Structure formats: structure tokens, C-alpha cells
Fold each of these.
Amino acid sequence: MGVISTDSPDSPDSAAAATARPAMARVPLARTLVFGAVALLLFLLVVLPFGWVLNNSFHDDLTGAWTLSNYARIFQSVDLLEPLFNSLLLAVATAVIAVGIGVPLAWLVSRTDLPFRRTIRVLTLTAFVTPSFIGATGWILLAAPNSGWLNALWRSLAGAEAGPLLNIYSMTGAIFICGIYTVPYSFTMVSSALDEMAVELEDAAATLGSGTLRTMLSITIPLVTPAVIASFILSFIQGLTLFGVPAFLLTPTGIPVVTTKLAEFYQLFPPEIYMAAAYCMPLLLVTAMLFWMRRRILGRKQFVTISGKSRAGRRIALGAARWPAFGAALLLPLVSVFLPYAALLLVSLTRAWGQGLSWENLSLHWYWWALFGNSETHTAIVNSLVFSTLAATLCVMLGTVVAYIVERRMVFGASLFGAVATVPIIIPGIVMSVGFFAAYTRAPLNLYGTPLLLVAAFAATFLPIAYAHGGSILKGIGPELERAARSLGAGEGRTFLSITIPLMGGGLLSGWFLVFIPIIRELSVAVFLITPKTNVMTTLIYNAKDGGNYEAVCAMSVLLLLITLALVAAAGPLTRLTTVRRTSRKSGRKTAPAEGVLPT
């Protein structure tokens, strides 16, 4: 019996081994290069901007010397403390409204026989994709104390000498706008928790004689508590860090908040950039404290259910309260979608809205002007689409790779990558804008006025969304096929591209839309970074509003809304189509038995 020596230079096994050795030798280098590139991107997008904000906060604007005077000035000046208190008031009120309306609305839609539940859900999500500053513009047309249509109607009923019924230019008006456009955050998070909750425990409680109220208090509410707390924190942060709504509604009346005060520092001559950096720190401290509190509250309490397949829970019959509950549920879409959208559309279709509605005054002039007659508007539309596409693509690519490194534990200390990718969630958008301005508007890069600066800032701001989304998809994909591919000689890169990415499929596309939509409507990140050549739709609307040309502002706002809503409408079918095609390709393969390990 002959035995082939593995050491023979002529043997096939020896040749294969000789071929494999260089490939194996290249793996550590390739891995090092990939990890190095990811680490470099995270450093440039997250660590460096935040580091510059922190560094600048300890410098004096006049001398450039190290100092603590900026922080001393914050706590010694009434003019700087007042915006902090106003921001906290706005944030608390926004969170209370968002949770107070969003949680009951989510319960009505998810767990009761409320009529037209699907319609209410769609209309609520429409408010979710509506930029709050555009909603504020619509309500300026409706509730401005002198010219608002609702106040004009009130005067026609109560008498010409009657005072205004509503005044949108007030803290109450800002709280109202911030609240109604933040409700969808609470609604989405809580309704998702209710929809995904296994209902066996509720059914068991009902079988044992527990009433609806007792079941809610002892079963349902504890199970959705994490979602409620998370939605309160997210709503609080939204109210604390919004820039557009306070700039539109509070600045004209002289009520300052932190975000508008930061803008003032940049508008001074010379600008107080270092003071602005120090003034960012209270926002960072508050948001970081909230996430720490959430961790402390929920860290020792795990609300989970242990069961098999869940099924759709029985709807709670509202009885005679069905239609009154539907009327109450319709109030949010009425004030956040129907009324402001109608006001924006009507004004955009008039040559001069002060002349009232008449056939002679109706025109498509401002849409033609926005699309073809004004080069600045045309440039802003193109910039919005191009910058958002590039930023969303970069964000999803980086977030997915980081999630893969963390979930598959590709390197020692992989969790550090995930921690850095998550940091922007506690950095308000306007603080991120300040950080990028500080880091990249100086030598040697000096990226001010370039598209790269905006693309990078957008990608960094929404990186936590892409990372979390990628991680959630990977958790549902077992590593068995990846291991099989590697055992057959495929490298890590080839395995990731040919196995993992196809399995992620439609999830990556939905993640891309999930990032693209908030980017295209983002204002606070872009506000300090744009130039006339890099204007986007949101900043152009913000700048045009100060000129008082509401017809042009409304036309641009409607165009932005149409683009956003069209993308939302396309996201679902495209994601489903991608998933169906991937499933069809898999079903046609001869290696069907391997599909048993794949998620559906």
C-alpha cells in the first residue's frame, strides 16, 4: 500500500498547501487594514469633533489661552442661564406631551377595536416624517396673532376688536409644536412593543378573572415600561436639542433657548466659537445623565416573556366609546398633518397670500420658481438628494461593518467599536455641527464650504441608527453559513460579501431609508456648516423664512414633504421586493436543505 508523503513537493496536497499559505498570510494584513480603516473613520467622525468641542471650551476667544472663564461666565450670567432653564422647560413639557398622548394612542391602535386603526397609524407616521420646523411654518400661517387664519376666523365671530385667540409666537406655541411632532416617537416605540408582545400572559390573566384595568396595570404596563421610559428620554432630548422650532417661534419674541443662543455666538463679530463650545456642555451633560438614569432604572429590571409563538391578541372592545375614541385619536393628525399641510399648500398656490384665496390669485408660479426659475433653490434640491444619499450610504456601510465586528467578536475589544459608534446618540445635532465646524474648518484639511463636510457630519449624527439596525439584523442571522464558507477556504472578506450581506438583504435597504429620511430633513446639523454653494433644502427654507416670502417658503416646504413622503412610500415595497427576490433565488438552489438555518 503506497502512502503519499505530504512533504513531497510533487504531491497535490503540497501544492494546495503552498497556494493556501500566502493567502493565509494575507488574512492578518487584510483584517488589520479593515479594522484600521474602521477605527480611523470612527475617530474622524466621532472622537475628533467631540474632542475639539471639549478642547475649545477651555480656551478664551480673545487670547486663545487656556481658561475656565467660559464655564464661569455661563453660571454667573443671567443671559446665559435663562436659555438653559427655557430649554429644560421646553424639553420636559415636550416629553410629557409626547408620552401622555403617544402611549394611550399606541394602546388604542394596537390593542382595541378602534375604527380605522391602520389609517390612524399611517397618519401618525406621516407626522413622524414631517420636519417640525415645517410644521411650525404651517402653524405660523394658522395662529400668528395678527395674520393667522384661525385668529382671523375668531375675530370674524367675536368681533373685530377681539384679541387673538392663539399666539404661536410664545413658549406655549413652541411646546405645542415640539410636542405634537414628538408624539410619533413615543407612539412608534410603544406600539412596536405592544405589537411584538406575547399576549399569553394577558389571556391567562383574563381567564383567571382579572379585569381589563387590572390586566393592564399588572401585565401590559410592566412589559412596555422600557419602551415608555426610552420614548420619554428620546422625546426629552428632542425638545432639548431642536433648533428650527425655537428659531421660528421663540426668536421673534426674544425668548432664548440653548440652541438659538449657540447660533447667536456664531453670528457675533467676531464669533465666539470657544464660548459656543463651552455652552454645548450642558446639553451633553443632560443627555448623558438621562441615558445613565435609563440604564440605572432598567438595568436591574428585565421585563421579558418566556413563551413559544405569540399570536395576535384579542382586541379590547371599546363599546360605546369606539367613535369618541376615534375622534380623540384623530386630533393628533388634525393638528400635525391636515391643518398645517393645508395651510402650506394653499399659500404655496397663491401669488400673494395676503390677497386672500381667489381664482385670480391661484398660481403654480412658486413651484415653477423653485424648480426651474431659481438656481439657488434648484441647487439646494440637488444638494439635499446627493448629500443625503452619500451620507446614508456611508452611514449604513460603516454601521453595518461595526455591527458585524461587534456581533461576531472579530477582534479583542470589539465592544469599544460599538461604544464609539453609539456615542453620537447623546450628542445633540447642533453640538455635532459645532464639533465638525471646530475640527474641519482649519488647516490642514479646511473643509468648510465643501460637500464632504456636510456628508461626514450627517453620517456621524445618524451612525447610531445604522449601527443599531445592523446589529439587530445580525442577531437574527446564525453564523453557521459563515463558518461553513470559511471551512471551505473563503476568506473573511469574501464570506462577509457573499454570505452575510446577501442574508441581510432587505434589512440593509430598510436601514438605508431609515437613515436617509431623517438626514434629508435635518436642519440643526447643517446650520453652521453650509455655504451658498452647499445649501440644502432645510437650510434654504430656514434662511428664506427670515425674508418674509412665505409663498416661496411654503412651496419649498411642500416639495421637501413630497420628496420625503415619496421615499417613505417607496421604502416598504422596495424592501419587500428585495426580500422576495432573495427568497426566490434561495428557493431555486439545489442546496435547499441549508436554508433551514436561515431566518424568514
Note: The two ends are 51 Å apart (CA to CA).
Amino acid sequence: MFDKILIANRGEIACRVIKSARKMGIKTVAIYSDADKQALHVQMADEAIHIGPPPANQSYIVIDKVMDAIRESGAQAVHPGYGFLSENAKFAEALAAEGIAFVGPPVGAIESMGDKITSKKIAQEANVSTVPGYMGLIEDADDAVKISNEVGYPVMIKASAGGGGKGMRIAWNDQEAREGFQSSKNEAANSFGDDRIFIEKFVTQPRHIEIQVLCDAHGNGIYLGERECSIQRRNQKVVEEAPSPFLDEATRKAMGEQSVALAKAVGYASAGTVEFIVDGDKNFYFLEMNTRLQVEHPVTELITGVDLVEQMIRVANGEPLSITQEDVKLQGWAIENRLYAEDPYRNFLPSIGRLTRYRPPAETKAYAPGTQPGDAGDEVVRNDTGVYEGGEISMYYDPMIAKLCTWAPTRDAAIEAMRVALDSFEVEGIGHNLPFLSAVMDHPIFIKGDMTTAFIEEQYPDGFEGVTLPDVELKRVAAAAAAMHRVAEIRRTRVSGRMDNHERRVGKKWVVSLQGQDFAVKVKADREGSTIKFEDGSKLRVASDWTPGDQLAKVDVGGRLVMKVGKVSGGFRLRTRGADLKVHVRTPRQAELAQLMPEKVAPDTSKLLLCPMPGLIVKVDVEVGDEVQEGQALCSVEAMKMENILRAEKTTVVTKINAAAGDSLAVDDVIMEFE
């Protein structure tokens, strides 16, 4: 076995590889850019080597710099993680030339299947059903428009190299094809150093289901079930689960056997993923093969008990697989939610900054990759992350900062475990998508398991505007807030140094105001908790060990309720199940007077184009004096490896432009002004 492995990656996947290597007794080497000097993967590794400036195209994807680090460290093998150089055949060749083991498939398999154009041609030759499209290289935007018309709109414009949603655009007309081609080309060049683009038919209302395969160099190959990855935004997966609630055993077996056959046809040896789109009749079509470890691999590990990273290392060391297809048993249900540094209230635009608070829910200590989840109890919580409290989220890399996973014997139980885990996850200092993830876990379509890749687009067409809790949940939160307020009031009566003859008394009657509703309640407390009586005569029993100052409240109020707690004047800021609530607890007289207070009106920004995220201006498409139409492109902003086109919301005239290509802007900086 190898003595030392270098991890040619960063963030959570580098940390994940370190954990398995450490379990196997293998020393690890991290590489890092200037932006990652204090990163968690650098702290976890046995040694770390600096490789360059923050931009990935000057550090993490520069083969010569990574090779220099390998030589300096004396590492015998390299694990590439995902993204960056993980599917780069030239990198694998460079390693082979120096006798360094690549913890991944052979060069030939990378070239055959890692390139989307080539892999589709091979699949077609092997009589695998594929999506119609143009597999040749596309020269320019005019060529892209012509091909798009031949294939028929809508089309998917995709980067030939890489993945993770980078370099992908859906075009419904000529203008979008032209713009999408250029943006995809730019993103592909920046993310993968390869700007080749191809076009295929976009199949509407599909499911995205993928098969995990594992092969060795001795001709053995198995599949480890499927992953449902249909909940995506901008072609980037957000929620994954295993198994899929849609597949039956016959379809699973057919997809699995076809995936293994395809892998064996190209001499594949390592962990890999064959992706399919599946229609409502369970017809499946080969999409692509990812010749690397997938981001969402933890859900497969949770339902099979197989440590995929360990298996990859053993295969790279020349060992045959120790498990057969008959050994693979799918147990229970696993769900993964990706925590992104993106502001859901700003249409999921990237957010950067320092993590002033980062407290994930406690992981189940009895569980580790390679063990059967059921041995840990009825629920498992796992959080794969690459950040820590006080660390900084950089604008240079992918916005994903953690992968929160839960496992339980049934799908319903796994979803409920995820709801509690999301509510328990404390993140402050940046915009993040925790509220949105909570909303998805409660969405009827997700609960039913009837989602397609259009789920987010269809269910949140105007973006995410927060969650409105149903009345039943609202009463539970109101009851909890009343009990918590009473505890805080008692604390305040015990503060020393009070003025003489001024005694603070804790009343029993309160009015709890939240989400536009007022609940008049009466609080009756005892040693075990409080009974909250509402005006309609209904009662709720509240029990909790919460004390003032705690930022997380775990409350029993007609069931388990977890809330993140902040302080506002006269009450709390409570966040639970995707809702962000300002809760005021007042005496009846205070509540009466509060009704007379005027509401604060937000300033008018309708004549300004504000920068929606911290980022770099790539280009400005208009000039002062131009008349612009609704939907017209105004400028492009790049942040976290994604290029975003900002468009006019109405027909107007540009009166002032405050930024130019190359400028770095902060959130809400004024880019241009209108008439």
C-alpha cells in the first residue's frame, strides 16, 4: 500500500479523502493557493505545499505546479477529487510518466468517457440510447445558432470537459443560443482550461438519475445502486438521495448492468458514475460518464456501507475488488443537501465573506464510511465540509461549503432527520441556502418523490422569497416564543443593581406577533415547562432547556422543534423550517400601541442596476444614451466560477454607467443608472 498520497484538490473533498487515507494509515499531502493558506484541508493534512495565486487557472489546474508539488513531497499516488484536474487525461499521463499512481481510471478511459463528445459517440456505437444532438466541435456563435436550429429548440449548450454545472446553458431561441455559447465557452476555459462546446437536445421534464460503478484492473465491475439528482438549479445539483423514489428493481438492474458494461468496454478501473436522464415511462438515456468521484458519493456510502474513497485507493494500488455484485445490499434511505454560499433571497447569487458562526449539527459518531449505517442507530447525520468558524469563503472557487447528509431506515424518516439537521445548522456572516433547503424538504412534490429537473424552475419561478409557515406550525412557534420570553423575563428580574422601589414583575398574559398574525396567550409555568393557552381555548405544552443567550433552541412543543435564535427589540428572530421570523412578545397594552406604529418603507431602486453579488465585471453591453428593451443584456458579472448576465427589467434609457470591464464590485454597488 502507498505510504503517502497527495490530494490535488481543495475544500470538502480534500478533507474527505484525508479521512479515508488516515483510516488506512496513509500520510497525506495538501496543496493550496494563496487564498487557501488557512484552509481546513491544509490544517488536516500531514504536510502542505503552496502552488500559486488564488485563481484556479494559476494554481490548482496548472499541471506543472501540481507535478512540482508531487516531486517535492515524494508522494507515491495522487487523488484528484472532483473538478480541477480530476478528468484531465494530460495530468494522468504526466503522473504515469513519472511512475506516480493516479487514484482514478486509466488514461484511455478518461479520454474515452471523460470527454462528453467522445463518450456519446462510444455510447452510440455500443447501441446505448442517447439524447439527439451535435457531437462535433462548434466554431463560433453563428455556428451554434445554426446547429441549435437543426437540433431544434430547446437545446443544451455544454462544455465538453468538466462538470458541476459549469459551462452549461439552456437556450430556447437564437439570441439565447448566441449568448449561451459565449458564456459557456468562457466558463469552460476558466474552470477546466478547455473551451470546447457541444450542443444536444434538451429533454423537458426529465429526471436525472445516475449509477455508481466500481471497477478494478482485473476485469471486475459492480454497480452500487443509483442516486436521484433531479433537484438542480442552473444545472447544478442541490439535493440528492439514494435510492431513487422513482425506480423499480427491474429498471435499476437494467441501468446498473448497462453502466457496468459501458465501463468495461473502455477498460475502466476506479469509481465512476454513469449519468442518465429518465422519462416518466422509465425510459432511460445515457447522458455522460463522470470518470471521477462524484460530489454526492456520500449517499451511496450511506446505503451500502462501502467507503468509495478507500476502494479507489485500493484499486489504484492494483488490488482486485473485495466485493461482488451479490454483496451489494441497499439498506435504508440517504439524503444529501448541498450547503452553498449563495443568497436565496437574491436569486441564489454568490455570497462571500467570513463565517462569523459555523456550527454544523453533531455528526453520528458511531458511523464512518465503510460501516453499515444501521449499526449507528435509527438515524445518521454526516457533514462533509471544508470550512470552519472564522474561515473565509472566497470568490475564486465553487460556492459549496458543506454537504449535509442523513440516513434512516425509511425515506420519510430520512427527510425528517434532514429537517431537524438543517434547523440545527448555524451559519452566520454570509448568505446561504439553508432556508431554501428546508423549504424543499417540506415541499409536497419532494415529499411525494415526484420531482423532475424542472422542480426549482417550476416551483420557484420568481426566486425564493422565504417560507410562510402554516397556522399549525405558527402556533407551535408562538407557544415556544412565549415560553422563552417568560424565561428571559425571569432572568431580567434577577439582574442586580436595580433602582430602589422598582420591582419588575413577570406577567402571565402576552401577545405574540409573527408572520402578520397576533396570538393572545396565557402562560402557566411549572417545574417541567409551560402550558400555553390560546384565545380559542387550545393549549400547547412547551418543554425546553433553552436559556437566554443560547443561539439554538431545541423545544418539545407538540413534537420536536429546533430554532435558531437571535435577539430583536421586544422579542426574537427565530429561524425554523425555512422561515425567518421576527417575533415580538408584548403585554396586551404594548401590543395595542404597536398597532399604531408606522411601517418603514424601503427605498426606491427601480432606476438603478445594482450589483447582486461580489464579483468581477466581465463586459458591459450598453452605452450611455442607449435605449434598452426588457430582457436585454446589460452586462456580465463573474463570481465563484459562474458568469451571470444582468438584464433590463423594463424598457428604458441608460443615463450613467459607473463600472467597466475588469472592475471588482461589492454587493449593491451601482453599475448603471436609468432614465
Note: The chain is about 25% helix and 30% strand.
Amino acid sequence: MKSRNILVGLVIVQALFISCTGYRQFKFSEYKVNRIEIQGNQLISKEDLRTNIPGLKESYARIFSPRVYGFFEAKRKLKDSLGKSPAFIQLFSTPNPSLNKPYLDITKEAIFKYYRNNGFLKNKVFLKIDTINSTEKLVNVTYTIEENEVSTFSKMDSFLVDNPLLGKKIETYYSKESVISNNDRLNLDLLKKEKDNISHYLKNQGYFYFSNEAIGLKLNDLQDTSLLRVGIIYKIPDFKEVNTNRLYDRLFRFGRATFVNNQYTDSSNIGVLNTNALSKLITFKEGDLYSVDQLNQSLQNIYASDQFKSVSIKFDTSSTRVFPKVELVPNEKFNFSSELGGSVFRGIPGPFLTNSFKIRRVFSSLDYLDFSARVGFEAQAGFINTDQARKNLEVNLSTTLNFPKLFLPANIKQQLGSLYASQTQIGFGYDYINRPEYLRTNFKIFQRYQWRKSPFKTFQFSLVDLNILNTNYPETSTASAFKGYLEELRLQGNNLYRSFNPSFVSSIHFTYAYRSFLPSNELQAGESFQLGLESGGSTLNLIGSKKITFIENLLGSDQNIQFYRFLRFNFDYRKYKMLGLNRKAQLAFKFIGGLAYAYGEENDFQLPYEKNFFIGGPSSLRAWKPRRLGPGAYNSISNLIEQPGSILLESSVEYRFRMFQLFGTMNGAFFIDAGNIWTFANSKGEKDGYFAFDNFYNQIAVGTGFGLRWDFSYFLLRLDLATKVINPAKPVNEKWVLSKTSFSSGENPIEFNIGIGYPF
């Protein structure tokens, strides 16, 4: 009905135009372009051509006829000459362009060059202009493209380098660092990237003045005159301009670095720069070969101290030395910020207030102290009756002291080598939750070391991570019902009740993360790997009772306080590969796993609830509800209960591809998810959930589906529709459930998952 009304409205508007005397008499004084068509393209999409070539950005097809736009263009020009411009006329301010043959020829040449730049060296482009209405003076423009064969890199390359020492450096780069691979499609942008990479590589080898202007990369048309398999000639130097710095092949070493306070306002409250402390953040030594990465690493170390608004650098050079002069603009000593916000849950508003206060240069010239506090009074679903909303008061307080260095023995720091943005953090926090069911507190003390070995390798090591948790229950019917609910779960093998018992959780943990690319919504090739190791309650092994009397007295609870001892290991590997000659599609792969073992007999070999593994949900196995899959072949009687496990195996494969433009880029994805969690046989859980080497593969859950990703550049909105393929909770002969998929609440309903960003 709505679309029919719109159509009727357009017909009426068009009729009004036709009935207008001025409109009936209006004629174009010159030929106009009605539409631009692209034909013959196969490996390069029309979307890419319209995006990258200005003359193709519009098809010029409009809701109304070109004559309507031309009529109002003429009216607007007349009104504008009198200094008037009615708002209604501005609605038609994008008239069809005039026929301009030279401009169309320029667009034709741009299409030809774009194809050449993308490896189609023998492409041909034809321009055709068809008059569709000589009375109205309208034409259609068609560009017909013959792509022909595509050229690829052969990696049969040659080198012309004047300086022999520089030539050896280039050969080392070529064998280990080149961005061009055999059989890659010829791409002139890739040649530019190769030049930039060579320049960066040599700047790390001491060549301070080397730039990509000294590099010549030419296609070798002598090896293959057809240019289907293209080799490259690397020529250094290959200067195009006469006035160019000719010290490209001279080696330079670092001189002494100096620091300048570049604060232009009154800096009486800033103090004098502590050059001795700043020098310790410099990763190079006087006399080392110049390295642009070492220089950037030093600047990042200074900036990561959070003491300066800006960090910039200038250079003085002698015949063989580079003297860095670091210019700094200090930050204020005190910073305060406050944020007031709110949420709405089932129509109930929930305000929250977040405050943060930072004090710089507390104990030294480079440390800072962070205070943060959050108070929220928000609604959440009830534990027992999930349809009922409960008010929840939550208070979070934390204090962290940050030092821009590692407080470790000198021999250990020496073995670690030069580091990026290293930090030592010491802090404590307090969390308070007040719900109708319970009052819960958590007091924590932590210490962390953080550092990076490169922009892509991050390490974190914590020697101290202590949490003292306690829960009190008010004398209400709601609290009594909640305790009964926890007991019911315990009898079913679910250890959620342990999260609400008085507990002491201490651990030492180490995390290593590697990522070969910077995170973004743009599809790109790369891989990432994360490894985590954790030992909980290690010091309790030195105590005969495996308990700390001081903690028991501090909590003063009539319940037995849980002291956990456990070991936990997890890893996460992800690989992203671009597909197609245009490299517009992506194959994404994820494989994660984990093992958590509680060896504390005093807690029935149970883990702290937060240290369990869970599976299912928008970023996991999408055909199952969040945290509801498993363990093993266990079939839960309720989807309201989270299912924890001690062993995790999970994998996903996703094919991502572009679809169309709609206020952003609409991408599609087909995916397959597989995995499950299990428990150890000593966990006193359900036997169907126990892990067994001879049977676990029969309990792997599999789901599949299709997803949409709406990419607005600044954020990505995701919708995934997933269905179960293999359900391990079903009997042996009924595990295959794909044929039972339905949109209703049947045996295998489709799960709808909405999220922000990619699932992995």
C-alpha cells in the first residue's frame, strides 16, 4: 500500500510538471547525458570502476526525467542572477551533465590506465554515444571494455645497484622482506609499496638519507614480450630530479639525543625535564647504526608514559652522525573527567556516573596515578524469573599506579632486549553489587608487567592477582528462592553456586599476543596468535592446610571459604587470506582451545566459575545460545543455565565477500562453526560431559549459516542467521538435524545474532 501511494504521488508530480506552460515550452539548448553504462568488465567490478574513476561515479538516472532537472536548472540560473534562490528549486540542483566529447575521452583513458595499473596491460576500451531522443537532445554513453589476459609477477628479477654493500642489503631484503610474490597479479600500487618497503628497510640499516626516490622499478619486457609473466628490474640509484640528496648510500650512526621542553605558555608548574629519566626510555645507544624503527620505538616509549601532549623530533647531522633532538610538550599534572549516562532495560531507565582522576609525576618524573569510579543503578533480568526486571546497584572503584619501565632484575631486562612501551602497574579495586537476591563484594590487588617487542608482539606478566569475594543474602523471600535455585543447579552438576560462596582466588598469569596487521573493519590478509598461561593458588601449596587463616578471619563468614588451586592454558589462532584477483573476498579461519585443571581436592576439583570455558553465542558457535552448548553430549533441560567446562575446542571458517553499496558497504558471509566443551571425570559433573580421547570427536557440534555485515567505516553492524547441523546432545542416530531447520520454535530453530564488528 505504501509503495503504491509513493508511485501515485510521483505520477501526480510528473503530471503537474507536464501541465506547467513553462515546462511544456522548455527545451535543452545542448545535448545532455541520460545514462552512462559499463559493459564487458569481468574481473574488475563496476563498483570498483565507479569508485575510482570520477567520470563514472554517477549513472545520471533520476526519479524524474532529465527535462525536469534541466527546467529547474534554467529557472535557478535566472533566479540566482537576481540574488534569489527558492528552496524548492534547490531540490533539483543535480542536473544531467552536458555532452562533452573531450571529457568522455578523458574518462575512457582513465579506464584504460586503471586496468593497466591492475595488470591488464593489453586491455581495450571503446566509447559509444547513442542518441535516444533527438527532440529532447538526450544521449546514452556506453564504455565497452575488453580486459584480455591479466599479467602476473614471475619473480625472475634482476638488480642494478651501484654500491656493492648496498646491493647485498637489497638482495637480503628481496629474499626475506619483499611484498611481491610469485603469480601475484601485476599491480602498480604494489610496486609503489615495494619501493616504500625497501626505503624503510634500508633506513633501519643505517642509511639515513635513503628514500624511495632513489629506487627505480621497471618491468622487464625482454624476458617475456607478451608481458603475461612480468619480471622487475631493480635499479639503485634512479633519481628523476637533479636537485636530490645524493647521500643515499652513506651509513650514519646515532649521536647523543637531547630533549627540549617545547611548552610555549607559562610552564612554572611543569618543572624541568628529567633528561636522565627520559634517556632510559631511548632504545638506541650513541654509536649504534641509525634505525628508523629504533627511533620510533623510543618516541613511543616517551609518548606511552602519558606525560606529554605531543612528542616530535628534529635532526642535526654531521658527516657520519645523526643527532636526534626530541621536542616535548608536557601534560598538566592533574586531569579530571566525568561521564553521566544511562541505559534502558525493558522500559526501565538506569543511570550511571563514571569519574576518573589522574595525577602525573607522583613519585618520579614519569609515573602517574589513576583513580576511577563508576556508580550505576540499572535494571537487569531476574535470575529465576528472567521475564522480571530487577534493580541493580553496582559500584566499581579502582586505583592504578603506572611506571614507564619494568621493575625487574638487570640480567632479566638485558635478556628481554629493547622493548616498546614497557610498563609496571600496581593497583587495587573494589566491586560492590546489590541485587534483591544478594549483596556481593570483590576486593582485588594486582601487579602487572606489560611490554611489546615490536608493534605486533605484546606481552603481559602478572606476579600478583588476588581476589577476595564474599556474598551476603538478605532475609527476604527473593534471596531464599535464589539460594534454592543455586542448590538446584548444583544437583544438576552446574557449579554456578561457587561464584556466590566466600572465595579467595590468587593467580600468576602470562599472556603473549601476536598480530601481523592493525585491527580495522577493512578486509585484509594477516594472522594473529594469543597464548595464555595461568597458575592459581600456587602459594597455597606451601601451606599444609591449603588455607590462609588471615583471609578466613577477615571474611568472618559462617560458610567454608573456598581457596582455589588450578592451572589454566588457552590459545587462539586466526588466519585471514584474501581471495580472487581483485583481493576483495576473504577467507577467515579461527581455531581456539583451552585446558583448565583444578587440583584442589578441598574444593572437589572445581574451578572458580570465572575460570571455566564457555561456548555458544554471536562470537562463538552461532547456532547455539550464548554459553549454552555442552558439555559434551549433555542435554540441558533449560536454556537459561550457562554450561561451564574445563576443556575447550572451537573452530570457525567464514567466507566474506562484498555485495553492494547502501549508505556504506554491505558485505555477506557464509560460515561454518564447530566445537564443544568438556569436563574432567573427577569434576562430579554429568557423565555425558566427560572428555574421552576415544569419543570426543563424536561430540563435536557443528553449525552453519549466512550473515550480513553493514560497514559504515567507523563501525560495522553484523547480523548472522545460524542453524545447527550436528547436535551432540541428540541420540547417536539423530545428531544430524540440518533437515529440521525452521524459523519457528521447533527442534532446530534458526538463531539470530546481532553484534558490532566481525565475530573474529
Note: The chain is about 20% helix and 40% strand.
